[in-house]
Design goal:
mainly alpha; globular; 77% helix; single chain; 151 residues; 0% strand
């Protein structure tokens, strides 16, 4: 997560946007702090069991999904600036979530789906739809850097 704010600024540089120095300080500080935490985990000097190597950490962890989160946030911001409503943007984001969820659980989904439909709907509404709606509203009104630092 520490690389997200820095990645947002790097993408902004490629888009030839001007970036205030304070944003660079915040993004760099966040990256350094998270790097220190990662090194503590990798070296085994934290409460979390350390990985054998930095390579194992990068392969085993989900850190690469955050690059997608940055790109998704920036693309959502562009869509919002182009006049798309929150509902329009979220409708398209949900297609991806549904497809990814299906592929991750296709072997067990039908077995559990029929007996747990009320819980699935409740959890989906409270833990997916509501937070995603609030996140999308935040993306609409904030810069991508603020969104990534907040996450």
């Amino acid at each position: 997560m520490g690389i997200e704010p820095l990645f947002v600024l790097v993408l902004a540089v490629f888009a030839k946007e001007s970036i205030p120095k304070v944003n660079w300080v915040i993004a760099t500080g966040t990256f350094i702090a998270c790097t220190i935490l990662i090194l503590a985990v990798v070296s085994g000097n934290s409460v979390v069991n350390g990985h054998n190597s930095a390579r194992d950490f990068l392969i085993d962890s989900e850190c690469w999904l955050w690059v997608g989160a940055v790109l998704c946030t920036m693309y959502s911001k562009k869509l919002s600036e182009a006049g798309w409503t929150t509902s329009m943007i979220l409708a398209n984001r949900y297609y991806g979530i549904i497809l990814l969820s299906f592929f991750a659980t296709f072997d067990i989904i039908f077995k559990y789906f029929s007996g747990n439909i009320s819980w699935i709907i409740a959890v989906t509404a409270v833990s997916v739809m509501l937070p995603m709606n609030l996140l999308q509203i935040g993306i609409q009104y904030c810069s991508p850097l603020v969104v990534m630092v907040s996450l």
